[in-house]
Amino acid sequence: MQPSQFGGGDLPPAGPPGGDSQGGKMLVTPATAQQAEHAKVALVLLALAIVLFWRVALRVLLAIAIVALGVGALVLLQGMHR
To answer: Which of 3, 21, 19, 22 is nearest to 11 (CA)?
Structure first.
């Protein structure tokens, strides 16, 4: 920042820590803070559900593949035996 922008080297006036509505930032009220926390919890639960779903889905697919390989091996061995 150049000092001449604020009247001869003066610093801009100090505002609240969260910013003010004139500066383009919104104040966080308790209601919006609570909504933000609820949104965070919802996102964490959604991420957890997705991870758990894919862990279970991949285990089921792995079990299906192992069973299919076992059945295929048995069929091949029976075919060779005859």
So the answer is: 3
Burial of 39 (0-12, 13-18, 19+ CB in 10 A): exposed
> HSE (CB half, 13 Å, CA atoms) of 25?
10
Q: What average pLDDT is seen over the chain?
A: 81
pLDDT band at 23 (very low <50, low <70, confident <90, very high): low
Which residue, among 66, 75, 82, 30, has the nearest Cα to 38 in the 3D structure?
30
Between CA 68 and CA 46 the distance in angstroms is 33
